[in-house]
Amino acid sequence: MIPTRPLPAFAIAIAAILLAQSNQSVGASATETSPDQVKGKTYRLERVYLVSVHVPSGSVDNVLQSLSAAVGLQYGKYDQVAYIDAEGIEQYRPLAGSKAGAQETVTTTPSKVVTVSLIHNRAVLQRAVDAINRAHPYEEPVIYIVEGWRSRATSADEKNPNRWWNQKQK
């Protein structure tokens, strides 16, 4: 039996992009649609960069601290916002020319995927990728960057019974 675990955020984002591309004949293409065209009573959409990076479990805090110092990881009225997947196993085998030198066996390392969204600004993206590379222990960090949209609240939707402040204490 093959063990399963939840899909990392970057895999979900990539699947959404692939599905969107395959469904473009159904509606307007992504280039014809703007986040400004999708608004609700209590939300709006904005363009972002979705950045996912594989990080050895022991280095997650260092990478997040570096990212927070460089770009703040702000999402609305919150900062240091990130999604960290459950621990998995990353595998690799160094080849000739790598700092580790060519090796015969595959190495496995406990690893997590850290995903953040950044405002759609190339300078901010540059600072984030620089911060990851400074703090990451690998010779070549595994970083995925996808352009996308994220939702943003335009009001607190004060009377919505599903909001945490309207929930009864247990």
Please provide a brief summary of the model.
By secondary structure, the protein is of the alpha+beta class. It is built from three helices and five strands.
Q: Quickly name the level 1 CATH class of one domain.
A: Alpha Beta
User: Mind describing the biggest β-sheet?
Assistant: 5 strands, antiparallel
Encode the helix/strand succession as letters.
Answer: HEHEEEHE
Look at the helices and sheets and give the structural class.
Answer: alpha+beta
Which fold does the CATH topology of one domain refer to? Alpha-Beta Plaits
Helix content: 10-25%
Mean pLDDT: 86
User: Helical element count?
Assistant: 3
CATH level-two architecture of one domain = 2-Layer Sandwich
Question: What is the first-to-last residue Cα distance?
Answer: 39 Å
Estimated radius of gyration: 19 Å
The low-pLDDT segments are 14-28
The total of beta strands comes to 5
What is the global morphology? elongated
The percentage of residues in β strands lies in: 25-35%
Keyword list:
Alpha-Beta Plaits; 170 residues; 26% strand; 3 helices; alpha+beta; five-stranded antiparallel sheet
